């Protein structure tokens, strides 16, 4: 579905999502893994693995912190794959017309003011300085 219009907000291209079953199953499996990793990280924090409370002498504090850091890394990587699959398989690809902004539009109010004005020609020195200092000065 494409429109021929070039006004702001018109849709140039619309491709519906694929919505594959394999992606849905993959998202469900990755979500189950995500819940398990979050549970393991929460249990490790509550058990005091990172603070050395409740750890045995065979596991040092550095190894416990590295383990919890690795679990946290796995949580975010798993979440990234979930979002990647969802975006690729379940969101439509839409291209809309955006307003093209010229360079002078952000800096000046009118196109004829691009080159600026001289303060000596106007005769109203105070008003010119006010407009230069306050760009949104009401006319």
TrEMBL record:
Cross-referenced InterPro entries: DUF7318
Keywords: Membrane, Transmembrane, Transmembrane helix
Key word Transmembrane helix present: yes
Pfam families: DUF7318
Membrane-crossing segments per the record: 21-46, 66-86
Keyword hit for Transmembrane helix: yes
Name of the protein this chain belongs to: Uncharacterized protein
